[in-house]
Each structure stands twice: as structure tokens, then as C-alpha cells.
Specification:
single chain; alpha/beta; Rossmann fold; 8 helices; about 45% helix
Length: about 270
């Protein structure tokens, strides 16, 4: 079991959305240090001021799409905060409500870099030390979009499919090496943080951020390998495999509205984190 109490917790995208809530909850659970990485200095300052009474908070302006900046920031974080015990890769962006033919090369590169490559690069910094200490936990926030195809968000879907495949593969590698370092992959449905403003869902309600953050931290504490939120989303994957593709598209994509959920998407203005 992973203990948050007395741990140093690093959260990317930790100044807003679900990352911010998890940071607060980690401090409430007795985390020794909360290190927040974000690109929005103003929000980081406000978060640090608000959380200061809960525990020790350090903030770092980091663009996770800049690999050299990630490497430098991790070295500084470890030097100033001590060994990182729990890493939560939470930063993410989305370009939605556009079919693939209307995406730009920059959209594709930026989305894949922030959502997929950045967690890998940061994990490369954290894992060697965790493995050497035989202690640590990496939680990668993917998405339910990484488990099912969805129109008008094809690039985002691709980035999250890749995260799920990579994250769970690393988990298996560590298990085969008999390491006590843990990896938890989380795949939540749409969360009401502003990132997916305008989305309409008929099959599941939009997730409450507070409840979702609690479930993610509980998954970390219990060393869960994979956590889909809500749990019922796993049934969709079952039917995806059991039904002919045309039937699945009609029933779940059409009748239950999965394929039209992004039609009204507007998203959050400014820097976007989950």
C-alpha cells in the first residue's frame, strides 16, 4: 500500500482542475511536501497561498512539452524538495470539435507531446531513483477516451490510447523485475473542470471533480493497477469486443450519444489542464 502521509508528491498541471484538487487532498492526508508544476504562474501563486496552511508547497513554472525544461525542473525539484515519492502526470490539453482533416500539424504535435511524450520524459527522470530506492509510485492520468474511439477528438484519443499502453507496460516491467515501485493508470470520463465545457453526455453523468480526485488518490493508496472512472465504463469495453462494429456504433455511438458528445464542445480558455 502507498502512503501519502510523509511523502513528497509531485503533480504536473497542479494549479487548476483535478490536479489542484488532488494536491489539496494530498496535503490534507499529511503529505510532507507538495510540488506543483504548471505553466500558469498566477494560478500557482494563488494555489500556494491557499494551500499554505495545509502544509509545505513548492511551485515550479514548467512547460512539460519542453523536454530539457522537464529534466532541469525535475533535478531542481528533487534538490529542493527531496526524493519524489509519488508522481502524478496530470497535465493535458485537448483540441476538440474538429474532424481530423481540420487539425493542423501543430495541433497534433502539441497534443501528443503534452499528453503522451511529456509523461514518459518525466517518468524517465523519476524512475531510476525510485527503482534504486525500491520505493515510489507513478500515477498517469489518461482518459476514458483512451479506451474507445470517438469522432471530433481523434488526436486527443490517440494521445490517451498511447498513455494507457505505455503506462501499463511499465507497470508490467516493474512487476517482472520484482520492484516495489508501483504504476497506476487512471482513465476518467469527462470531468467538470472546464476543460471539456460544452460536452453533453447521455450514457454517464459528467464527473464531479472532488469525487474523482478522491477516487484517484484512493487508487494510488491501494496500489491499483488500473482505475476506470466510472467503473461502469468497463462494460462499454466488453460490448465493444462482443458486438459487431456496426452494432456497437449504432447502439453506443448513436443511441447513447457517445459519438455526438463533442458536438457542443467549447473547452476552457487559456492554458488547459485536466
Amino acid at each position: 500500500m502507498t502512503k501519502i502521509k510523509d511523502s513528497c508528491v509531485l503533480i504536473t498541471g497542479g494549479a487548476s482542475g483535478i490536479g489542484r484538487i488532488m494536491g489539496r487532498m494530498a496535503l490534507e492526508r499529511g503529505a510532507r511536501k507538495l510540488a506543483i508544476w504548471d505553466i500558469d504562474e498566477e494560478k500557482m501563486a494563488a494555489t500556494a497561498a491557499e494551500f499554505g496552511s495545509l502544509g509545505s508547497v513548492a511551485t515550479y513554472k514548467v512547460d512539460v512539452s519542453d523536454h530539457e525544461a522537464v529534466e532541469a525542473a525535475y533535478a531542481r525539484t528533487r534538490a529542493e524538495c527531496g526524493d519524489v515519492d509519488i508522481l502524478v502526470n496530470c497535465a493535458g490539453i485537448v483540441t476538440g470539435n474538429r474532424t481530423f482533416d481540420r487539425q493542423t500539424v501543430r495541433d497534433i504535435e502539441r497534443t501528443m507531446t503534452v499528453n503522451t511524450t511529456a509523461p514518459m520524459v518525466l517518468a524517465l527522470q523519476a524512475l531510476p531513483d525510485m527503482i534504486a530506492r525500491d520505493h515510489g509510485h507513478i500515477c498517469n492520468i489518461a482518459s476514458a477516451a483512451g479506451m474507445i474511439s470517438n469522432p471530433k477528438m481523434s488526436v486527443y484519443v490517440a494521445s490517451k490510447w498511447a498513455v494507457i499502453g505505455w503506462s501499463d507496460s511499465v507497470r508490467i516491467e516493474l512487476r517482472q523485475a520484482r520492484s516495489r515501485v508501483r504504476v497506476t493508470t487512471v482513465a476518467p470520463y469527462y470531468i467538470d473542470t472546464g476543460m471539456f465545457d460544452g460536452v453533453r453526455s447521455r450514457i454517464f453523468p459528467i464527473l464531479d471533480p472532488e469525487a474523482t480526485a478522491r477516487k484517484i488518490l484512493r487508487a494510488i493508496e491501494r496500489d491499483k493497477d488500473f482505475r476506470g472512472i466510472p467503473w461502469g465504463f468497463h462494460f462499454i469495453r466488453f460490448w465493444q469486443g462482443a458486438l459487431p462494429t456496426s452494432w456497437f456504433d449504432t447502439i453506443f455511438g448513436g443511441w447513447f450519444g457517445i459519438f455526438s458528445a463533442m458536438d457542443g464542445f467549447t473547452g476552457r480558455k487559456g492554458p488547459e489542464k485536466r
